[in-house]
Amino acid sequence: MTKFRFLLVPLLLAAVAALAAGCGGGSSSSANVPADAVATVGSDNIAKSDFNLVLAAAKGTATAKGQSFPKPGTAQYNTLRDQIVAWLVQQEELTQGAKKIGVSVGPKDVQARLKQLKQSYFGGSEKKWNAALKASGETLPQVELQVRAQVLGEKIYNKVTAGVTVTDAQVKAYYEKNKATYTTKPSRHVRHILVATKAKADQIETQLKHGASFAALAKKYSTDTASAKKGGDLGSITQGQTVPAFDKAAFSLKTDQISQPVHSPYGWHIIEPLGPITPAKVTPFKKVQTQIRGTLLQNKKTALMNAWSKKLKKQFTGKVHYQAGYKPAATTAAPPAATSSGTTGSTSTTP
Predict the structure, then answer these.
(1) CA 250, CA 255: separation in Å to the nearest integer?
(2) 165: Cβ–Cβ under 8 A, 6 or more apart, which residues?
(3) Is 269 helix (H, G, I), strand (E, B) or coil?
(4) Facing residues of 262 across strands?
(5) Which residues of 167-193 are buried (b: 16+ CB within 10 A; e: fewer)?
(6) Tell me: the pLDDT tens digits for 34-49?
(7) 3-state secondary structure of 235
(8) Measured between alpha carbons, how far is residue 186 from residues 240, 251, 259 in Å?
């Protein structure tokens, strides 16, 4: 059932991955953190029960996959603990930040997404869903937690980037500025024979001029074993693809003209173009304008998300406090290492 698995406690969508670096700040003080919480974010608490839920999910997934689970006190356990706490803090910061822009995720949102997952991966079959859930070692509350995080990420992304547009003029300007990117360089079909010394190359050149078979000599003498098997045939090469000396000869010789020995860092080459040069070709604007528009649109959205992330980071500076023994060594949220997969498959809708 690996195709149904996905990260048990993922970060948000890739589109809002920048938020991770901006969350999780705070102080080491635990004076104002309730005993039943692992941290406070602003005026809200992160309950130990939430931490235990994620920890249990990690253990269940590891067990289902036949993997050992780190014991408390080990470096591996401490790393996992830090990741879980940082992720929970991140989710709380995002929840509070989302509220300020009119975004929230309720039970109906989570259930609607679960229904979509069941339909997409199991044809709506509760029996198959429950079997996959059991096989993964997860419980429904654990899956609901991750689904909530994904839906929250999507809603934040859609809200922050709503109304972003790219004009036709911007698309055209990008094309003109980056036209080289959409230009295919000249190419040519060539073959060669590569040997270690000029003396050997001279001998081969002489034989070729007297009518010897290029392919036969390549198979017999060329040290480029890959092309030697094909009679020295390199197929079509792009101008600038090979070393300068080889490139110059390959694109200056006439078709079927045998070169004099050409020296390169690899040895001595006898080169023969097998066809004319295919000239450079520029991909028409009409064929790439949709692609360019998508790139520019994504760049604008990413910039907006980065700005929102920085603003969120400032809002919570000094406002996150951790219970003793729960402050992460690093406060950047990351997926718990022991939970590399789950049951329901990725649902990211990031452009």
Answers:
(1) 10
(2) 297
(3) strand
(4) 269
(5) eeeebeebbeeeeeebeeeebbbbbbb
(6) 999 999 999 999 999 9
(7) strand
(8) 9, 9, 20
Single-letter amino acid, residue 188: R
CA dist list (Å): 342 to 56, 57, 288, 335, 345 = 13, 9, 38, 12, 7
> What's the length of the chain?
351
70-118 pLDDT tens trace = 999 999 999 999 999 999 999 999 999 999 999 999 999 999 999 999 9
* Secondary structure element (H or E) that encloses residue 192, with its range: strand 187-195
What residue has token string 């003029």? 169
CA distance 284 to 282: 6
Type of residue numbered 95: T
Helical ranges in 178-269 per DSSP H? 198-209, 214-221, 225-228, 244-250
Structure-token match 């941290």, residue found: 39
Position of tokens 């006898």?
Answer: 270
